Amino acid sequence: MISENLRRVHENIRKACERAGRDEKEVTLISVSKTKPVSMLREAYDQGSRDFGENKVQEIMDKRPELPEDIRWHMIGHLQRNKVKYIVGNVCLIHSVDSLRLAEEISLQASKKQVDADILLEVNIAGEESKFGLSREETPALAREIAKLPHIRIRGLMTIAPYVEDPEDNRKYFRQIKELSVDIAKENIDNVSMDILSMGMTGDYMVAIEEGATMVRVGTGIFGERDYSSNRS
Ligand SMILES: *Cc1c(COP(=O)(O)O)cnc(C)c1O
């Protein structure tokens, strides 16, 4: 099932790139494996997946030692400051930075480990109350502040678009995020590049790619529905 799903997702990515006149290599597929057992991640790995997304620090800590070392782990979920020390140096990208205090802690832990932490700023583009993330208005100023911190690099923006039946309904939000990233890139801030745009999930990743996504985060479309009835998550 996983290999078939992956093949379909890659094919959809290829088609979306074609429609948008983009090179397929510009888009990284992140296999979102939260709540899924290591055996399923290994199956995806064997089919060529190297980028995996998790939303809980504990799950990354548990799964990482059991899987090959060339996997790039992505922290995509809300991050508490007291857990930052566990993931800095263990993940390739933190997608969910939404405050100066969190960025300061990442910077501190990265300094201690003498590594540079790559991060994205999470933007709540639709202004949904139930979601974490910065407003569009406050994002540029926060980018300027975080950029001054040592051992931290802002690589772009991330957003979780609203849950919708018709992915077309999210096109306007993907466009807004893209515009915001272009605006911030124009400021030429030291330590800030806007080369990554993490947006699009199972329901809407094709539209996200058409609007400029460079990373799409697909869970259900690869691993199937998640089961939250047990105590895993
Ligand atoms: C769970 C999750 C996804 C994947 O969602 P699907 O709809 O299953 O593809 C993507 N991004 C984030 C931040 C998530 O928490």
Which secondary structure elements does this structure contain, and how are they paired or packed?
Layout lengths: L1 H19 L7 E5 L5 H9 L4 E4 L2 H7 L8 E4 L8 H4 L5 E5 L2 H14 L3 E6 L16 H9 L4 E7 L12 H16 L5 E7 L6 H6 L4 E4 L1 H4 L10
Parallel strand pairs: 1-2, 1-8, 2-3, 3-4, 4-5, 5-6, 6-7
The site of pyridoxal-5'-phosphate has 14 residues, from strand 8 and helix 9.
Structural write-up:
It is a single chain. The protein has 233 residues and is α/β, with parallel strands linked by helices. The longest helix is centred in the first third of the chain and has 19 residues, at 2-20. Strand 1 (28-32), helix 2 and strand 2 form a beta-alpha-beta unit. It is 38% helix and 18% strand. The model has no long low-confidence stretch (mean pLDDT 96). The protein has one domain (2-222): Alanine racemase (TIM Barrel, Alpha-Beta Barrel), CATH 3.20.20.
Strand composition percent: 15-25%
- The topology string of helices and strands comes to HEHEHEHEHEHEHEHEH
Number of domains: 1
The portion of residues assigned to helices is 25-40%
- The CATH superfamily label reads Alanine racemase
How many beta-strand runs? 8
Spans of at least 5 consecutive residues with low confidence: none
The largest sheet, given as strand count, sense and whether it forms a barrel, is: 8 strands, parallel
Which structural class do the helices and strands define? Answer: alpha/beta
Number of discrete helical segments: 9
Oligomer: single chain
The gyration radius over C-alpha positions equals 17 Å
The assigned CATH architecture is Alpha-Beta Barrel
Q: Mean pLDDT across all residues, rounded?
A: 96
